[in-house]
Amino acid sequence: MVVRLFESLRAVFYTPYYLALALRCYERRGLEVSLGRPERPADAALSVFNGSADVTWGGPMRMMQHIDRQGGPGPDGKADIVGFAEAVTRDPFYLVGREPLTAFTVRDLLGKRFASVSEVPTPWQCLADDLRRSGLDPQALDRIDGRGMSENADALRAGELDVIQVFEPFVQTLVAEGSGHIWYSAASRGPTSYTTWYTSRAYAESNPQVLAALAAGLHDAQQWLHANPPAAIAEQVQPYFEEVAPEILAGAIERYRANGVWGRDPVLPVVGFVRLKSALLAGGFIERDIPFDSCIDNRFALQAIGR
Q1: Do 254 and 225 contact (CB within 8 A), yes or no?
Q2: Contact at 8 Å (CB) between 31 and 3?
Q3: In this predicted structure, what is the pLDDT of residue 42?
Q4: What is the mean pLDDT of the chain?
Q5: C-alpha closest to that of 79 among 197, 208, 201, 198
Q6: 94-189 has which CATH code?
Q7: CA pair distance 66, 199, nearest whole angstrom
């Protein structure tokens, strides 16, 4: 069966999904897949409704945003969008400082020239929640918004910033250069659901065999990822990151795996969903408390792991 897949943007932390494609995990599960991308990450959720894609991977944040804008789930308590196979189970972003800093706390950001991620909203929403949970007002930071991670990395190198929020491979590149030092791995916060397969409920109900095959194929890739060395993983996904040096890519993958960013199975845990939702509610990104069961269906993930 032919399935049109979308990614929301190209990122190293999506390695489990690229690995499943590279290893032909979905083909072995009976699917013929193609991979595309919306013009903007913000359009990822819409893609499964406007005919662009059958299934996309992206943040539960986009799902909750979509449901919130619709006024909540339907009268039956179910949303018209459903997530069913998680790969990124912890926050994949880091704070990288110009100078070394041990025993970091979020209070160390006060008085620092800091640039947050602007490409997508989730990293800042989650970090702002970390600040609030520590009794700090996120507005108290000297925060620069609206610039890309590449520009912020250059500003850190130039001494124009003290600390930046970035994902891989910026982290590994800055560390390898000696231009940056890791202050904080947001993965240390604990489970924070970051990336799942999702689709429209109409497609899910009409094509349960596709969801089962995608969840099983992802699990195949997850098992391979956790059983092989970073260099071997990097070799498999290198075609998706042609501009990244192999040793940088391998280092980024090693760090993500060591930090527990990638789950060992595709089940999306309630605790990670709730932590993300709490951050989005506290920051005013969404207004409604979206119930887990309204938009997450773990049946296919549980089937993939034999439960």
Answers
A1: no
A2: yes
A3: 84
A4: 97
A5: 201
A6: 3.40.190.10
A7: 12
What is the H or E stretch that residue 124 is in?
helix 122-133
Alpha carbon distance 206, 204 (integer Å): 5
Cα 295 from Cα 62, distance rounded (Å) = 11
What is the distance between the alpha carbons of residues 221 and 215, in angstroms, rounded to a whole number?
A: 10
Can you give the pLDDT at residue 41?
87
Task: Report the distance separating Cα 134 and Cα 157, nearest Å.
Answer: 29
Specify the CATH number of the domain 2-90+193-304.
3.40.190.10
User: pTM to 2 decimals?
Assistant: 0.96
pLDDT at 105: 96
List residues bridging with 97 in a β-sheet: 163, 181
Tokens 């913000």 belong to residue: 42
| pLDDT on residue 13 | 99
Interval 38-60: pLDDT, tens = 988 888 889 999 999 999 999 99
**What are the strands of the beta sheet with 181-185, ordered from one edge?**
142-144, 113-115, 163-166, 94-97, 181-185
Where do the CATH 3.40.190.10 domains begin and end in the chain? Answer: 2-90+193-304, 94-189
pLDDT tops 80 at residue 174: yes
pLDDT tens, position by position, 85-101:
999 999 999 999 999 99
Can you give the three-state secondary structure of 149-199, one letter per residue? HHHHHHHHHCCCCCEEEECCCHHHHHHHHCCCEEEEEHHHHCCCCCEEEEE
